[in-house]
Amino acid sequence: MNNAITIIFLLLASKGSFLYVSNISWFVILFLYVVIGLHYKRFTYYDLRVIGNFSLVFLSLMVFRYFFLNDLAFRYLLTDVLFLVKYMYVCFLYCALLKEQSMIYLVKVIYWGAVISIPLYALQLVAGPQMLAIGQRLHIAPDIPNYTNFFVFTYVTGHHDRNCGFVWEPGAYGCFLNIALMINLAQNRFVIDKKTIWFVVAIITTLSTTSYLALLIAVLMYYRANGGKFSKIIFIGVPLIAAVAFKLPFLFDKISKMYVHDMNDIDNIQFLSEYYLEVGGELPLNRFSSAAYLWQLFGIRLLWGVSNPYQDTVTILKNVNISNGIIDFCAKFGVLGLSYMLYCFGKFFNLFAQSAELTFYSIIIILTVSFGEPILILPITLVFLFVNYYINEEDMVYDDRVYEDLQYD
Question: Domain range spanning residue 203?
């Protein structure tokens, strides 16, 4: 049962199939989670206190922001409330159902996805068009040209040589993998196991710049957790990493070119927006231009956030695609909301790592992957708002039993 609950949760979080874009799917899954919890008697009065207190604080902040900080129509407040019900309640129910086992199962199911994705990725390399044709007949994916989804795997024509896994695109898949990787390392006391190896292999197949950078930080975390010295990093690791990064076209070379391109987009944003509006498409702003432009538009309001559908508050944003997950989250819920989420994740990670330095690395990994993809508003990261209510030091298990399903399935 716990496996099924987690699979459903990740299918929503993956944003790959029709489940994510359909409001009906969200509420059906919410209802299903409630029914499962009541039938198996997994809910307690403590759960009601957790979600009650969280909802009260969240709604109070949204109402205060609406009346005193922002001048927006009432429908924007309603969409913030809908975000609470759809996204936050799904994350809460997942944690309330699985309690202290929630992160163990999350890592476990992402591991299954990583294993499945490798042979499917190999098949994609030799038979991509055939996969696309089959997938489009199944009608599982949203109606997007050159895109198909099989729940456990996604194929995008534009990413023919990259592994999307069960997520909507390869960079986002790398985000899921890096999160699972560092949690698995922490739960396993920074000992490499088969899950770690599969996560690393899957990350490599994404060919994602931000995923590779996050993986390097995870390697540093592992090295330091096992007694590695900074002196060796400085004299050996840094030159080696720099040499490799400058040789690979999708690392530093791509970042520098992206920055120059983004600054040019900012200088011509009005013309580009009008052009894309005329031809019926979206203006894709990359990571740097997304951050710079939203700062130009909202300024100090990014401290507390504008609204969940902030794109509708400015006409020019209606046909602009924001790709920077950090600035996107700040526009929705502010730097204050981002800080609280990172605090919740750091608190959870530190329960296992028991190290401020390693916890710092884990937060940098979260920021790195979210800089490249808008994952902070997805359940894969929002779930950390609730994990700490159900796990404490007494639940820390470091031997092989941590991944067994003895009394849970």
Answer: 2-255+330-392
